[in-house]
Write a structure and sequence with these properties.
Layout lengths: L13 H8 L13 E9 L2 E4 L5 E3 L5 E3 L3 E4 L4 E6 L4 E4 L4 E8 L9 E14 L2 H5 L4 E4 L3 E5 L3 E7 L2 E8 L1 E6 L18 E4 L5 E5 L7 E4 L12 H22 L4 H6 L3 H5 L8 H4 L9 E5 L12 E2 H4 L3 E6 L3 E6 L16 E15 L2 E15 L4 E10 L3 E10 L5 E5 L3 E7 L5 E10 L2 E10 L1
Parallel strand pairs: 9-10, 18-19
Antiparallel strand pairs: 1-4, 1-6, 2-3, 2-5, 5-8, 6-7, 7-9, 8-9, 9-12, 10-11, 11-14, 12-13, 13-16, 14-15, 16-17, 18-21, 20-21, 22-23, 22-29, 23-24, 24-25, 26-27, 27-28, 28-29
Length: about 450
Amino acid sequence: MTQHRFNPAARPCAALLAVSMSIALPVLAQSNDAAVGQVSLLIGEARVVHANGAREALKRGAPILVGDRVETSANGHVHVRFVDHAAVSVRPESVLEVQAYHFDAQRPQDNEVRLRVEQGTSRSISGAATEADKTRFRLNTPIAAIGVRGTDFIVQADPSGVRATVSDGAIVVGALGGACLATALGPCAGGDVRVLSASMGRLMAEVRPGDHVTRIVPAAGALLTNAAYGAEERVAARTAAESAARSVGLLAAEPTPSALQRGNDRTAAELLTIAAANVPDLNRASDPSGQLIWGRWSVSPSVDDKLSVPFSIASTGRHITVADDRGGLFRTDDPSNPQHLLSDALNAKVDFRLSRASASFETGSRTEAASVDGGTLTLDFARRTFATALALSSTTAGKAELRMGGDVRTDGTFAVKDVDQRIAGAVTFDGKEAGYLFERNVVGGLFRGKTLWGR
């Protein structure tokens, strides 16, 4: 069976799905071999493979049992309505298996919904079983698990990986393996899973073969370089891509639950000696040949920011890593590393040199230029940890220091915060460049800025 290429914009017609799922259906009694759903719409050709191996062509009104596999042809499209009024749409060239389905309105703790999308594309709209207890639902794919928070979402699985988008509510996506088991119910937990909600805009959760960490990436962007589209459409696509990149960067800049639990490793940071820097030379334009570049969301730079470049420049040939409300750190794409993972060959402890920095000091509604007077950054690639220290100053605030340390994620990003300070940044895949944004609260105001480092 050929694979259906994923197109995030190609969603089933919401009106058609709603109509097909609103057909009056009998309440289906549940026993071990009772129907748990019914085909409410059939377009083209599809079949069902029962748990005993028997196969038959699907027809509208056909019952769906636990253990059934719904398989659609190249022109097939099936809608299934379940006993709790949940709805599932199975797109062409797709396979959906109903692994478990038990609904008891009086005992929601006994509910169990377990579906599997083996290949292709499927849309799922939660029913009463999930609304009563969201931990009793699981949708598995060959490499990823999806839990819900009351939702309407689309998932697609093919040999290149799994991708999911959300129309309403939120989902929790985790790569199968370790503590994330296909036999479990509910969302997987841990620092490697990601939450994707409809409020985050045009984004999708993605897990590729071999991934241990779910990534949230833009679901739009193809229009940016497509000459077939007009100027207005390309501007709209660029705006959507910028919004998506901003959302991805803001999410990545938040510490994972495990990083929050660990907190700021001041022990390592306090041992660092701050290396003096040539202050006038730091706040200068990014090197266009560098692997890391700071891009900004606004047309004009903020106070005394000579470092950042417009989003359209920073995002060309690069992807977002972390961001704040001013801009984000963009890292060069590496076609040989589509999973965006640090190389296992990086196993040394490396001291980085501060090459560029821009800073400001905010007090109330007033913002003034500040300076980064020196800095030190050490990355231990063997342990996947970092420690850094910055010397900061401004006319109003005087002098201050930032000292922080913590873990580096498998994709080379890191994020740590405590009550007075935070940083979020990334290292390049070859371990030769790094950068991070920072905030440091002091009496009277807030230092903010961004840095770039080299070896």
